[in-house]
Design goal:
The longest helix has 20 residues, at 56-75. The chain has 236 residues and is mainly alpha-helical. A 3-stranded antiparallel β-sheet has the order 1-3-2, with helices on one face. The protein contains 10 helices and 3 strands. Helix content is 48%, strand content 7%. It has helices at residues 14-31, 56-75, 94-105, 107-110, 125-130, 138-142, 148-160, 178-191, 202-214, 219-226, and strands at 2-3, 34-40, 44-50.
Length: 236
C-alpha cells in the first residue's frame, strides 16, 4: 500500500490514474513481477504483487519514483509525494491471497465510493471479467475453477460476500528491507548465543524464527538470508 504524504491526494484525475497504470505496466515488463490485484483511490493505492528476481522494494521504488517526478512536473509542485516508504505484508496461503484480493477490490465499497466492486473502474476488477492484460488473472481464477466461465462466476460471488478476513496491512506496519532483515538476524543470533545456522538445534531455531517474525521479517526473508529450509520456518 502507498499513501500520499499527510494523506494528500496523489491522483487528481483520470490523467493521473492512467499515467500511474502506464508506469506499472512498463515496470512490470522490466522487472517481470506478477500483479494479482490493484486499486487506485484518490490518496492511496493497494497492490497484490508476486516478486520474482527483483525485490518488492526495488519494484515499488521504480514505480513511485517515476510517478512522483511526473506528478510534480504536471502539477507544478515540489517535495515528497508519498508518505514514508510503502507498507506491505507477505501473503503465504491461497486462502489469505483470496482475502487480500477481496479487500483490495472492495476498497471503494468500504469507502462508500461505489456500491459494488464492479462499479469502480480504477481497479483490476474489470480485468478479471474482461480479460485485459495488465493483471495476471489466471492464478487467482484457477483457485475457484479450471473452467474460466465458472471461475469468473465464483470470483464475482466471492467478492460480494461480507466475510472478508481482517487484513493485517495498516499504515503503521512497515515491511523490513532485506538489509534491515539481515542486521536483525545477526543481532538476534548474537543475543541468543547462536554462532552459525549450521550448528543451530531445534529449540534455538524455533525461538529464533519466532523472534524474527515478531520483528516483522517474512518467511521469504528468513529462509533466504539464514538458509533454513522452508519446512523449518513456515508454520512457526
Amino acid at each position: 500500500m502507498i499513501r500520499g504524504i499527510n494523506r494528500a491526494t496523489i491522483f487528481n484525475d483520470k490523467v493521473d490514474k492512467n499515467k500511474f497504470i502506464e508506469i506499472i505496466a512498463k515496470t512490470k515488463e522490466e522487472t517481470k513481477f506478477e500483479l494479482y490485484a490493484y486499486c487506485l483511490m484518490d490518496n492511496h493505492a493497494h497492490f497484490l504483487i508476486k516478486e520474482k528476481d527483483i525485490s518488492i522494494s526495488n519494484i515499488m521504488k521504480k514505480i513511485c519514483g517515476k510517478y512522483a517526478i511526473w506528478f510534480n512536473n504536471r502539477h507544478q509542485r515540489v517535495g515528497h509525494l508519498f508518505q514514508d516508504r510503502f507498507k506491505s505484508e507477505c501473503v503465504e496461503t491461497e486462502a489469505y491471497l483470496i482475502s487480500v484480493a477481496k479487500y483490495i477490490l472492495n476498497n471503494p465499497v468500504k469507502a462508500n465510493i461505489a456500491k459494488e466492486a464492479e462499479g469502480y473502474i480504477w481497479s483490476s476488477y474489470h480485468e478479471y471479467i474482461n480479460n485485459k492484460t495488465l493483471t495476471d488473472t489466471g492464478f487467482l481464477l484457477s483457485l475457484f475453477s479450471d473452467d474460466q466461465i465458472k471461475a469468473k462466476k465464483y470470483f464475482i460471488e466471492e467478492l460480494k460476500k461480507e466475510d472478508i478476513e481482517a487484513i493485517n496491512l495498516t499504515i503503521d506496519r512497515v515491511r523490513r528491507t532485506d538489509q534491515e532483515a539481515k542486521e536483525i538476524i545477526d543481532k538476534e543470533m548474537k543475543l541468543l548465543g547462536i554462532q552459525t545456522i549450521e550448528k543451530i538445534n531445534s529449540e534455538e531455531r524455533i525461538l529464533l524464527v519466532k523472534r524474527l517474525k515478531a520483528k516483522g521479517l517474512t518467511n521469504r526473508q528468513i529462509i533466504g538470508i539464514t538458509g533454513l529450509s522452508r519446512n523449518k520456518v513456515v508454520g512457526i
